[in-house]
Amino acid sequence: MDPSVSTYVRGFHDIDAVLKMKYKPLGNTGLQISQLGYGGSGLAGVFKTTKDDESIAVLTQSIKKGINYIDTAPWYGNGKSETILGQAFKNIPRESFYVATKVGRYEPDVEKMFDFSRERTMRSIDESLQRMGLDYVDIIQVHDMEFAPNLDIILNETLPALQEIKDSGKARFIGITGYPLENFRTIIEKSQVKIDTVLSYCRGCMFDSSIQDYIPYFKEKGIGILNASPIGMGLLCEAGPPKWHPAKNQIKENCQKAAKYCKDNNVDMAQLAVKHSLELPEVASTITSSESSDIVDKNLKLLSTSLTDKERNIYNYVMKRFMEPLHKMNWEGIEVNQYREKLAKLQDR
């Protein structure tokens, strides 16, 4: 018998893999999305150099094995992620996946990095659809709201523009994303536009479980919850974070010590981190970005298997010794302040 999930396409999917996948409701959208989602940032080489043909192969294989939720943005490689998705989508049935992209964050150039205006927002969705070769996206999201000059711009320009985009048929649902969690509540309470989803990153992982404090509120509002970067943008893996990572030194040090402890005991810390996030209640999908088919397969296996006794013991020790002392420590404001300082300097020239 075919899997019941609506994105299953006979002849395209690996039926056994799809049957093993867990699908969860995304708030009140009616979408049933894979508990493990695919993050498009890696396609643009955000974390390491990638080859386009290999990235396309990994993405295609991920969808065939039941991952049906893809998250991307123009910001990822200045459109490269969406462009690669467009190449891959030529050989993937449209009904087999849901795709979300974003507006508001664009180029590495500080002066051109953010633009939450209505005009740029309306142009952005057309650019994204063209790059991906699609007529519509399933979710259109405001990217990193905290970088706007103020949240009133999000409320009065960006979100109304997204409603226009939705009304035009170019998107089905509207979402908001960002790092500071309280911004979600502020926008949801004040917005005249219905918010369907929220996406946070590094707030539902081993060193910071703050998203759980907001889950009852999101659930009450019927909003779908997406949790990105379970390995903390590289903090929770043996290789460690990229140089640009904004985390405070104590977070980096504790994570490095935890990674070393795991390595010394022949346990993959990244796998512990992904398993930790997958077990969070009420989260519709945990989004990971990987350019490796081996890592995708390992992550998929976590959905249907338990940690070994040794892995569980290592996990418990790591949480108590290295993660719990951080007590939801975060880097709220650090990136925003750095951005605004750079912008001010450029404008003062």
Notes on the protein architecture:
This is NADP-dependent oxidoreductase domain-containing protein. It comes from Patella caerulea. Pfam families: Aldo_ket_red (PF00248). The chain has 12 helices and 10 strands. By secondary structure, the chain is an alpha/beta fold. It has a single domain, classed as NADP-dependent oxidoreductase domain (TIM Barrel, Alpha-Beta Barrel), CATH 3.20.20. An 8-stranded parallel beta barrel has the order 3-4-5-6-7-8-9-10, surrounded by 4 helices. The chain has a two-stranded antiparallel sheet with strand order 1-2. Strand 7, helix 6 and strand 8 form a beta-alpha-beta unit. Helix 3 runs parallel beside helix 4, helix 4 packs across helix 5 and helix 8 runs antiparallel to helix 11.
Cα-to-Cα separation, first versus last residue: 67 Å
Instruction: Indicate the low-confidence ranges by residue numbers.
Output: none
State the major sheet: 8 strands, parallel, barrel
**CATH fold name:** TIM Barrel
Per the principal axes of the C-alpha atoms, what is the gross shape? Answer: globular
Report the strand count.
10
The H-level CATH homologous superfamily, spelled out, is NADP-dependent oxidoreductase domain
Report the total helices.
Answer: 12
Total tally of structural domains: 1
Class from helix and strand fractions: alpha/beta
Kindly provide the name of the CATH class. Alpha Beta
> How are helices and strands ordered from N to C?
HEEEHEHEHEHEHEHEHHEHHH
Share of residues in helices: 40-55%
Q: What strand order characterises the main sheet?
A: 3-4-5-6-7-8-9-10
Rg measurement, Å: 19 Å
